[in-house]
Amino acid sequence: MKFWSEFYIPTLKESPADAEIASHQLLVRAGLVRKLSGGLYTYMPIGLRVMQKITQICREEIDRGGSVELWMPHVHPAENWEKGPRWNAAREIMFRADHAGSGKKAGAEPEFVLGPTHEEVITPLVKAEVSSYRDLPKSFYQIATKFRNEIRPRYGLMRAREFVMMDAYSFDADDEGAIKAYHKMKAAYEAFFKRVGVLAIAVEADTGVMGGSFSHEFMVPAEVGDDDVIYCEESGYAANREKATSGLVATDFVVAEPIGEIEKFATPGVTTIKGLAREPHNIPADEQFKTLVYIGDDKPFLVLLRGCDDLEEAKLGTLGFTLVRPATPDEITPLMGAKPGSLGAVKDTLKAADQLAGVFADEAIKLVGNGTTGANEDGFHLRNVNVTRDLAITGWGDFRTVKAGEPCPTCGAPLKSRRGIEVGHIFKLGTKYSECFAATYVDDQKQSHPMVMGCYGIGISRTMQAVIEQSHDKDGIIWPWAVAPFQVLIVLLDPAMEEAATLAKTLGVAAELAGADILIDDRDERPGVKFKDADLIGVPLRITIGGRGLKNGVVEVKWRHESEVVQIPVAEAASRIAALVEQPASA
Amino acid sequence: MKFWSEFYIPTLKESPADAEIASHQLLVRAGLVRKLSGGLYTYMPIGLRVMQKITQICREEIDRGGSVELWMPHVHPAENWEKGPRWNAAREIMFRADHAGSGKKAGAEPEFVLGPTHEEVITPLVKAEVSSYRDLPKSFYQIATKFRNEIRPRYGLMRAREFVMMDAYSFDADDEGAIKAYHKMKAAYEAFFKRVGVLAIAVEADTGVMGGSFSHEFMVPAEVGDDDVIYCEESGYAANREKATSGLVATDFVVAEPIGEIEKFATPGVTTIKGLAREPHNIPADEQFKTLVYIGDDKPFLVLLRGCDDLEEAKLGTLGFTLVRPATPDEITPLMGAKPGSLGAVKDTLKAADQLAGVFADEAIKLVGNGTTGANEDGFHLRNVNVTRDLAITGWGDFRTVKAGEPCPTCGAPLKSRRGIEVGHIFKLGTKYSECFAATYVDDQKQSHPMVMGCYGIGISRTMQAVIEQSHDKDGIIWPWAVAPFQVLIVLLDPAMEEAATLAKTLGVAAELAGADILIDDRDERPGVKFKDADLIGVPLRITIGGRGLKNGVVEVKWRHESEVVQIPVAEAASRIAALVEQPASA
């Protein structure tokens, strides 16, 4: 039981200027956090209480999932990362740490980095500890601060430089075991989000720089989310847009009838799909080929799409390059012989085909017959281009962005799209890290194999903010019971009145024994201020003592998520409140 | 209830080569930590459990002491420190953090630092939040990782680059309030160390680079400690040697009879106190003056001591310089006109008196009459030097190291000395930080004043190791009940035997209900291995099930700190064990 006057909850009337979204505004206004610097926040007392509750629920569920808790250093020797498989991709997002007196030259490799995640630490640790199949499977997790050098931190705790994450790592003897570990962890995540009281949906996701064979993200649907989720209400299909597929693409090629002969034609000043779709050319976007130039690990490659489709850059990850970026106009022109806007991949027009790492075609171009593409000559295009006959394709894949309305890949019903906040991610990593760090085990035939790994993350601080984003109204936060900083707020209208103060303590003790955390608002403030603050900080159950009610022998009880105020006779208050508390507390 | 086979406790027979002290060896051998790199340790599952228990006890006691928990960032903007009062002194011990792409030049000021403590963050925070006397007093604390760029990390968690600390900060309207806050915190510390089960003695301490008016350290007596504690068994006086005083010094000057005239004499090749004490000079060390040259904030100053005394460098902190260091021979010779070994502070021989920031004399030289000192001329000394008549003293102080055997400053009994591990520190800071950050409040007369601060630290990870250092034997750790990773270990001699396994679970549940954490050793290992591991990891209460005992209808019970094994009939085991658990659990 805490007293507001001795505790510290600095509520604010105004939102800070840099808070663009409701949850960020409420984090600050309800006194949960204070900003130290961009992306660096102090968790104020009630913010920390929520974090501790989310942490404890996470610990219990991940424990139940069979993982064992440990705690790794925040500062990592850079050499662990240099040895690992993703130093080049990850170094830009990491803080580097050095001594004041290290005498390092600018641009030199740092001695230490601050960990954004811990594969590079736990894999060598497990390698040193575990060597026999008898010691497997093993799964370890920690709940700890992570660091990410966000260039543009924003949205409060959503994209911060410091954040708290649960990260888990599983080590199995074989693929079957790893898949079992993956599903055990997925179930633990589902239990966690349910207990926290937030709706988080598992969606198929891209594995990105982490690598690995497959993964799911846990998404909290919210308009302010950074990610698009493509989903089907019929089949239950759900995937991050970066990973989503659709039923649009036929496996067979569309064959134009009749197939025309290639013709070059002048298109002066036309350098866009839209331009070619207008007068005088009138070529619909879905009858055009889009030719993009990318650089993969220093070698250029082409990506072909329908003119009406957009590239989903994350999908280029399947090509196996470590670093991928769009080529610059200065790189494109000498390579292709033309500026962007007149590019194409028709066999004879590709002057530097031998310099290319490949020409990768999106499956959807199979739907184009007698299409139009650039002639690799400024101001000229080619018509009657047909895929199998004319294009110098070396590989196929799914590279396009799936849009709402396309058919579901599972059932054909129209797909929908909504934005979401990523609060968790699970990866089946395979042997990418264990091979790199030689984390092997010996089987019962004395044969050595790399361990098969999985890795798993839950954003603890992000989950706190996602809860607020999903559960608030115009007056403030509406905390789910399990993670509320306090579950019961007893408002004393006149704290100096001894009878009221004694009753508050009696009811507080009764509610505490029933399993709730109690805050008594004993401040010397007007009732209006107290009720506004109560709504703002979002304590689920409010009990008001004092005023006319107390004279009439009643206390007032109100749930934050309901508008009704219920009057309870003082004599019954302790038992009635205990009963109210026991119900959600045991949920 | 955990099962050893599903948990992870990697015990080792051998100590790591770099572990010099017992507690460091046991941390590793009992599987509590693993080294990632110098001064960076992973807390393995049972190590983390102990840390979490110590953390929770600390939280409860500091809460009880009236401080409110929050959680500040690990990464601090360097500008906070540049604005603060100790940037120059603290920067060398801090990690600097930058982006990979920050383009900072080597030697440039870093953008961020990793916090070794948080005065520079909390003072501006409280300044922004609190402005009226009505909001005071306030006290905040956190339990969080701290970073220190140790050049030579050693002794495991004792001197590490990352460590966990409880740090608290109190803000009061006046000195009286600050002293009250200080004593409240001191009481909370005493309660904490008592509950943890470690003997920690509060001793007077130097305020060092932290600054402030007075402070106490909490010391765990241990031979491997870094600090010397000077104490008196009669009066209870106790102080860090850096701060200790003795009753040796009379307030009156000893006057030589007769007072001689100063005489210069040749001392070729004699440049030490010892040399002058030998043939042919035979001048006892306590009749010599020792003259030391130091640099304080770029200006030289002299310190005068008796030849038999040592300088306690920390005591120079009272002189008010920000940075103090010994002068180099290259700085000394031109200043004094002679090399070290022939220096003195006799008025006429001081050639560059105007360049000195002062000549500071230790009180004990009052005991010297007709003394000998250097002539500021290589190879010459002066005899018949008398303090008040001859020496160019500008200030007095206590600068000498107190030794065991000297009289207690309180009661005169002989002082004793022992080594200790510092596990906590409390400072009355005064207004050093609040003035620097303009953390002021307005009183009821609308007058503005700087808040009066205190700051407080407990080394959580260090306390864990100090417990081990204080409580172990040749076989392993002997955990105090309250912080043991598990309190009861049930050893199954034959885990495959169903009757034994069922009994283990029954007894485990009984002990758990009585308030203990239970570990069941269900590994497929020989009994000898299990008993050795049980002693090594130091679980307080061991219950053995199986073998001949079980055939005879008994289980064996043994306390880790006792040698006796008690046999209990199976039928009584659950209730007897519950009774054993309830006693220490409620202590």
From TrEMBL, chains A, B:
GO molecular function, one term: aminoacyl-tRNA deacylase activity
Reactions catalysed, as given in the entry: tRNA(Pro) + L-proline + ATP = L-prolyl-tRNA(Pro) + AMP + diphosphate
Domain (Aminoacyl-transfer RNA synthetases class-II family profile) ranges: 39-480
Highest taxon of the lineage: Bacteria
InterPro entries tied to this protein: aa-tRNA-synt_IIb, aa-tRNA-synth_II, aa-tRNA-synth_II/BPL/LPL, Anticodon-bd, Anticodon-bd_dom_sf, Pro-tRNA-ligase_IIa, Pro-tRNA-synth_IIa_bac-type, Pro-tRNA-Synthase_IIa_type1
Localization terms from the record: Cytoplasm
Keywords for this protein: Aminoacyl-tRNA synthetase, ATP-binding, Cytoplasm, Ligase, Nucleotide-binding, Protein biosynthesis
Cellular component GO terms, alphabetical: cytosol
E.C. designation(s): 6.1.1.15
Pfam families according to UniProt: HGTP_anticodon, tRNA-synt_2b, tRNA_edit
CDD domains referenced in this protein's UniProt entry, alphabetically: ProRS-INS, ProRS_anticodon_short
First-listed, main subcellular location of the protein, grouped into a coarse class: cytoplasm
Record-level GO BP terms: prolyl-tRNA aminoacylation
Function noted in UniProt: Catalyzes the attachment of proline to tRNA(Pro) in a two-step reaction: proline is first activated by ATP to form Pro-AMP and then transferred to the acceptor end of tRNA(Pro). As ProRS can inadvertently accommodate and process non-cognate amino acids such as alanine and cysteine, to avoid such errors it has two additional distinct editing activities against alanine. One activity is designated as 'pretransfer' editing and involves the tRNA(Pro)-independent hydrolysis of activated Ala-AMP.
Complexes and interactors: Homodimer.
PANTHER family: MITOCHONDRIAL RIBOSOME PROTEIN L39/PROLYL-TRNA LIGASE FAMILY MEMBER (PTHR42753), PROLINE--TRNA LIGASE (PTHR42753:SF2)
Recorded family membership: Belongs to the class-II aminoacyl-tRNA synthetase family. ProS type 1 subfamily.
Domain description: Consists of three domains: the N-terminal catalytic domain, the editing domain and the C-terminal anticodon-binding domain.
The protein's name in its UniProt record: Proline--tRNA ligase
